[in-house]
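TASK: fixed-backbone design
INPUT:
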């Protein structure tokens, strides 16, 4: 455990980039070999749109990184936050509690709020417009959403009182798990179900990408599945019934053109066809 802490305390930016690229590459190869669905789409043009939005997320996080670093430093120096207030416990338990809480605030809460507040949904909807969910969808976020998620991550660091090494560990795990649960991979059903009791499995997260309510408003988690089960937002749907996308933007010119995707938050709001 000490080796992990030492590594993430000084992890180079190059290594963080390799985690992102390596994860996409690995899951890309797996989903090509063991696909959940045989989707008829042009994989590289589709990936190009999602890679561009991934790049904008990287830029946002890079520009704002100093805020995250300052926040983590302030919490540890001033002994502020949940982790700073609890009694001394084994380092593995300390780390697990920290990751669970960062996942709750930085992922689950951020995701839940974006579905419930109309202004924030305008940005998050870009992620849901993808009608071909694969590993590249993981970072299909409008730049505005990237800022929103950064704010929640910073809030999580402040409340949790997590040191910077834990933040880097959390972000690295978050990237990998998001790529994993978005990947178009077919796991044995029993294995996927078993995993869903601990982490967000691919089949569990795919339900969230079904195109209509109430499924869109479920399974918000990113790493740990405990929060969806605890707060009653967990649901299931057989893969045979899955239809990807969001019912307000099902036309290709709406969901598969980069220019329109960037403009969606500023377009006239639409009502869901099923509501």
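OUTPUT:
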């Amino acid at each position: 455990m000490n080796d992990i802490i030492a590594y993430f305390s000084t992890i180079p930016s190059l290594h963080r980039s390799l985690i992102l690229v390596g994860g996409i590459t690995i899951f890309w190869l797996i989903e090509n070999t063991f696909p959940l669905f045989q989707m008829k789409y042009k994989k590289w043009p589709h990936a190009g749109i999602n890679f561009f939005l991934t790049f904008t997320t990287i830029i946002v996080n890079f520009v704002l990184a100093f805020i995250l670093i300052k926040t983590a430093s302030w919490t540890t120096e001033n002994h502020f936050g949940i982790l700073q207030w609890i009694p001394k416990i084994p380092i593995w338990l300390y780390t697990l509690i920290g990751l669970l809480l960062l996942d709750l605030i930085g992922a689950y809460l951020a995701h839940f709020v974006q579905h419930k507040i109309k202004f924030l949904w305008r940005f998050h909807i870009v992620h849901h417009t993808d009608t071909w969910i694969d590993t590249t969808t993981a970072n299909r976020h409008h730049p505005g959403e990237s800022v929103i998620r950064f704010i929640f991550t910073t809030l999580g660091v402040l409340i949790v009182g997590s040191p910077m090494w834990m933040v880097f560990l959390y972000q690295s795990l978050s990237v990998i798990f998001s790529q994993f649960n978005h990947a178009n991979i077919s796991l044995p059903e029993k294995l996927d179900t078993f995993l869903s009791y601990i982490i967000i499995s691919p089949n569990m997260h795919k339900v969230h990408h079904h195109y209509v309510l109430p499924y869109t408003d479920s399974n918000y988690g990113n790493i740990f599945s405990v929060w969806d089960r605890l707060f009653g937002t967990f649901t299931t749907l057989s893969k045979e019934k899955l239809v990807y996308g969001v019912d307000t933007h099902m036309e290709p010119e709406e969901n598969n053109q980069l220019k329109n995707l960037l403009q969606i938050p500023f377009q006239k709001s639409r009502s869901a066809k099923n509501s």
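COMMENT: The CA atoms of residues 123 and 265 lie 5 Å apart.
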